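In response to reviewer comment 3 from the previous cycle, which asked for concrete evidence that the modeling workflow produces usable outputs, we include below a single protein chain processed end to end. The sequence was submitted unchanged, and the resulting structure tokens are shown without manual editing.
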Amino acid sequence: MHYAKNVLIAKNLIMYKFHESVFEVNLNYLEKNLNYLKTQLESGTKIIAVVKAYAYGHGDLEITKKLEALNIYAFWVADFEEGVALRKSGITTPIIVANPSPRSASQIIEYDLDVVVYSFRLLRLFGELKEKINIHLKFNSGMNRFGFSKLEIHKLKKELSVYKNLTIVSICSHLSSSRNNKKDDITKKELECFNNIVSGFSTQNQEKQLIHILNTSGVLRFSNHQYNSVRIGIGLFGVHEDENLIPIGKLTSTISQIRILKKGDAIGYEGNFICEQEMRIGVVPFGYADGLDRRLGNLNGSLFVNGKFCSIVGDISMDSCVIDLSETNAIEGDRVEVFGTNNSIYSICRKINSIPYEFLSKINRRIKRIYN
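The workflow returned the following structure tokens.
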């Protein structure tokens, strides 16, 4: 036990030695978040963990390995490539592909992936393969994205009766506005619509099927609609207004170079920032290719250095940005918090009218993840 922990610490130190920008992921916090969310659910409710988009930027392999060890029921990914990658890494827990491509059918079968079926085109595609496939029927309850209409239930049941190779594992939908308490009327309509769909879609084996519509905010705000399963994504990573959820990620970089500029000097491409007085600036090797939104440049955003927020000055470059160190005693090599305990993702996103989902999913995979 102690040996394994020491090995992990040693690996992390090596990461810091060779990589200037590092995304630290606390797997213990992941477990704490899962346990808290479980307190909002009945003991028998199954949890499907959403790990699409590289587990919201946190690294899907390590996240799924941890959750699999915690006996999560299933994983939800966006496409078959994400599912195949997890299978190849040794994940044996059920994996559900939310948007299966017709061209990926052979690999879906080969790697034993479940599929979400939301159209008659997909239903016929997988039904006519004659292979045993687990499917999850998705219905549109008001978001008007993917899903069968409740008006199509009769036709759907008729076509399903033809395809004996398809096993219906679950019936599901998705909430559009569960996070926003000002739009609870929308959420209630969606929940009512889905309830009518579930009631109308009775099958011989329905008592064995899972039913799920709740996401993280749904679990926290509408837990009486949990049915027998839920899908949880962002809450596992602790990015939510609920103070009981702990952000599991912290992204830091370093100060690569410091220079003193005179009044009138320009910074960055196009010279869009002009120093109004003498400035002490630091170059940080983290730019828009790494996931730092360009809208945060020219005083719109800041990074946290040695106890102070330091404004980003000039345009953000592909691989770097520049910060104002005039009010700090920072030196070259000091670590810089891009986001974390002091500089929260929410505060960053508010400045550019974005959302944490977008910010996290854009963190480049070249940024080294370390896990503790």
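The two ends are 14 Å apart (CA to CA). We consider this sufficient to address the reviewer's concern, and the full set will be provided in the supplementary archive.
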